[in-house]
Amino acid sequence: MTNNWFHRLILSYLPVFISMAALLLLLVYFIGSDLSRKSAIRANEVFTGHAAQTLDNQLQTVEQAVLRKIFSENTIEQYLKVEIKPLDPVPYEVSVSLAELKDSFPLIDSIYVVRDLDSSYVSNTTIGKSGELSDSAFVEAIRKDKNPYLWTGVREFQSFAGNRKVAVISLVKAVPFFSGGYVVVNVDVEAVQNFLKNMSSSSFNYMRVLDRDKQVITATEPGVGEGSFKETLTKKVSSYTGWEIQSGVKYLGLLHSISNFTLICIGIAAMTFVAGIIWIVYVSRRNYRPVLQILAKINSISSMPWRNGPQQGDEFAQIESAIEQMAEDTTKFTTKYEQMQEESMAIRRQAGLKELLEGIRPVDAEEWKRRLEALQMPLTFKPTAVIVVEIDAFTGFRFGYSTQDQALFKYALRMIVAEIADHHRAVQWIEWIAPNRLGMMLEVKKKAEEGLSQLYSLCEEARLWTVQHLPFTITMGIGKATGEITDIPQSYESALRALACKASLGTNRVIESNEAQSDFQQNVFRHIQAIQPLAIAYKRGDESWKAAVADFFVELRKVLLTREDLIGVMNYMIYYFHKEMKSLSGSLDDKWELESMPQLTAMLEWIETLDETEICLLRILNEYATHAVEQREQSNHYALLGQIRGYIEEHYANPELSLIYIGDKFDMNPNYLSRLFKSEHGENFVDYLIDLRMDHAKRLLSETSKSVQEIATSVGYTTSIAFIRMFKKTYGYTPGDFRKKASFR
Fold this sequence. Notes:
The protein is an alpha+beta fold.
């Protein structure tokens, strides 16, 4: 591809660019230099004023602190007023006070008070006569000067003989309103210099302080004098100290070079030449770069139509073709975006229906009407019934089909239900509220009774269509009709209760809320009571357990129970079976713990009806019972124990029946017989005999009118007292109470 557009740019802009760029760059250079200089001067003025003000504030603070010390503490006043006697503590107190003042201000090097009364002095470190003071010459000078300066210039101060001399500036305060004297505060010049350095951290600026005699007090650079710098930009005179603060820029070579005409001409010529080269190489490339970037982006897309076309090298023809392709892609994206919006609306509708049905948070009718308008739902709740559709045997459906197939079937179910509702002229809100449940709110524009009949016909039509066209069946629960939005959760609960009753009523049907009147809880004791003897018979290997299981489910079918009730009963049955079976030993116990018990527990996760439960339970129990029979038949004592059990069941009414009696009868040691019986049947001989006698006693109590004494004798007890005691120990109530309960049922 040739760069045609790039060549055009170079040939069209080159002459104008060279002339205009040279002129503009020259003007910018001069204007920029001038602005830089003015800006530097203004900044320097602000900096110098701030530095002068800050330094004055520091010195004024020292002065004010001295005055507060003089006037607020009577020790200095007392020292200056009265004559001091030997061992008087006042001078020492003044020295301590001055030391505290010095410690409060880092700038202070030393401080002392001179008393004219007896020419004595007190400093922050010593006490003595002014003649002994190393600074006595300065004291004499300020006594002769009736109007001493507030702040002196730089002078040398030596606190003690032998100490090094320190450059200080001194604050002198005359105290004429007492007995007379002076307070002298020496400020370390080096500390002031460090203070100024901290303020002026730039390497391009300098600062120096001059006293009233134009002598340098301090500067930010050591050894700086009047002529050490090229130019002073700013001068400020302190109204407080009378000192002059000067500041400027250390290096101004760039600013001064502007006045050199020769250098300017050379610079202009060089910059003009360089600008022309830069313009040719850079500006043209920069203007052409967007075209290159667009072409590179276009060429990176392999699906563009020009790649095999004849327009190779024409940049704008390629760009035009790309724009057409992008317009087509935009149309596709818009279509996809609209689809996503529809999916988002579906998700919002699903969440809205679930929130309304479950009553997650209370809302008034007006708020829900606004939300329904936003969701484009036309419901008015006059009257409305909630219907819940549940896929039967959902566990098998979930594992039997792929995720894609499940979604397809569920979509078909939802659409056909919506179509049938529309055919019946019912305004509907239909959404999946759980993986296996479709929630519906149907508004029927008829009278209540006719409306409910119409709902039943609608549901029955949907159920029949599902049976004919889909690989699964559905059960539908119809909730109570309501005309108030606040009653929708109650209608939903009644629909769920109706749906739960399919455990008794069966699957693949329509259940109305008035059918879901479960009476199971009123008869729960009678059903649970039948589980214990069933488990005992199963543990013993008695074939009667099969008939007992069949009778148990026959009794369950006589009452209406929900799936929750069914799960509760089965949990109790599994618990009691496990309680009985865990007393077995050897391979029988292993088989039960490792295979049968996990299967029974897993069964509770998917069973839905009594029929399914009975079939699954019998399959698991039969499998274990077959294994138990095989194991027992392999035992050497299986036949003998069978004879012993038959004898016990035939002669259980004999009061003398015991291990010793049976041992004598079958010529066996009683202890060995006990261990053998326990090993094969999982319970002691005595417990087995008691359970057998109590089972017969319960039958006689419920089926005959014999007295308790007669029944006690019939089951092997010589006295009714022993029988009653054992009956209550076994069941928790007396024979009389049991007979009353049996007659009541």
